[in-house]
Design a protein that fits this description.
This protein folds into 2 domains: 225 residues, P-loop containing nucleotide triphosphate hydrolases (Rossmann fold); 81 residues, Alpha-Beta Plaits (2-Layer Sandwich), CATH 3.30.70. Helices cover 33% and strands 26% of the residues. It is built from 10 helices and 14 strands. Strands 6-7-8-3-9-10 form a 6-stranded mixed sheet, with helices on both faces. The longest helix is centred in the middle third of the chain and has 16 residues. The chain binds adenosine-5'-diphosphate and magnesium ion (MG). Adenosine-5'-diphosphate binds next to strand 2 and helix 1. The site of adenosine-5'-diphosphate (ADP) has 15 residues, from strand 2 and helix 1.
């Protein structure tokens, strides 16, 4: 069974002085899966990904990468590629030169033609062919992220580790990155990537681990996270807001909320309600029975985002003043 796992972490703990960045983390990622690591800033995502890349070692617990136990001295495990905190690139070289330099560093310079083809293919996969001969110093964050992914592809990893790869990506960039990751997964590569936003991961991952202050708050399939009859906040637009407000106030299980002070400017026409689905059903039938047309009824945040917020909101770690990253 474990032979099929690309990552197996048990009770992994990592401290920086007083800060417990990871606290007894368990993680299992099968080969061929795209696994999302999600959590607020400071949750421990970068720290965990750094352990997978061998940039640091855990203080306690055990970690197996591609079936091989990782020791207590930091060392890059065989078959793993990726980056944390942005890819390391030479700004004065072009995209193509950066990849060629990496390919040469990996010791296959004997086969220049194969390297050139590999570089061209990697640039094509991430959609950077048009800017291949431009200097990286002028690249946007999204372009650097894509070039970092291309660099990781050169080594044909069996485990790919990406820290916040969606940062700075425009829609076209996102399409390329998603395409690359789905293709890799289909070929059996495991991908572990992080984001501080649940919606980044919804289109990409079938399973996620939610970290909150260094602990696993949830790990499993996305559909399990979205399931469950939770109270959610909904926006309701009807043909008669005053009548809808009265009916909502009189419907058991439905609470009218004040507009979120951090949300978009309040809209007198739209009510914000908190309810479970059965109570919402009652409200809608009552409104329709009263001749009030329901024009829009939608959750304020997606059920997945709501589950994520509920699991992470209670336990935010205060960030020390002037803290890194
Ligand atoms: N090298 C480090 N030195 C000191 N503290 C660190 C270091 N790396 C991470 N931390 C602390 O560990 C916690 C987790 O950080 P990090 O893994 O970067 O979180 P995330 O990537 O989820 O935002 C934070 O409180 C952070 O300040
Ligand atoms: Mg981070």
């Amino acid at each position: 069974m474990d032979a099929l796992l690309a990552v197996r972490a048990r009770g992994v703990t990592k401290c920086f002085g007083e800060v417990v960045a990871l606290d007894g983390v368990d993680l299992a990622v099968a080969r061929g899966r795209i696994h999302g690591l999600v959590g607020p800033n400071g949750a421990g995502k970068t720290t965990l990904l750094g352990l997978l890349l061998g940039l640091a070692a855990a203080d306690r617990g055990s970690l197996e990468i591609l079936g091989t136990p990782v020791g207590r001295t930091p060392a890059a495990p065989e078959g793993v590629a990726g980056f944390v905190d942005g890819p390391g690139l030479y700004p004065s070289l072009t995209a193509r030169q950066n990849l060629a330099a990496l390919a040469a560093l990996r010791g296959r310079a004997a086969d220049r033609a194969a390297d050139r083809a590999g570089v061209a293919d990697a640039l094509d996969q991430v959609g950077l062919v048009d800017v291949a001969d431009d200097r990286v110093g002028g690249f946007s964050l999204g372009m650097r992220q894509r070039l970092g992914l291309a660099a990781a592809l050169l080594s044909r990893p069996r485990l790919l580790v990406l820290d916040e790869p969606a940062n700075g990506l425009d829609p076209a960039g996102k399409r390329h990155v998603h395409g690359v990751l789905h293709r890799l997964a289909a070929q059996g590569t495991a991908v572990v990537l992080s984001s501080h936003r649940m919606d980044d991961l919804e289109a990409l991952c079938s399973e996620v681990t939610i970290l909150a202050t260094g602990r696993v708050a949830f790990s499993g399939p996305l559909r399990e996270l979205a399931a469950g009859d939770r109270e959610l906040d909904y926006r309701l637009l009807t043909s008669d807001p005053a009548a809808a407000r009265r009916t909502a106030a009189g419907t058991p299980g439905v609470r009218l909320l004040d507009p979120d002070p951090a949300g978009p400017p309040p809209d007198a026409e739209r009510l914000v309600l908190r309810a479970r689905v059965p109570a919402l059903d009652v409200l809608v039938s009552r409104l329709v029975g009263d001749g009030v047309a329901v024009r829009e009824l939608a959750p304020v945040v997606s059920p997945l985002e709501a589950a994520f917020l509920a699991l992470t909101e209670q336990q935010q770690r205060p960030q020390p003043e002037g803290a890194r990253r």
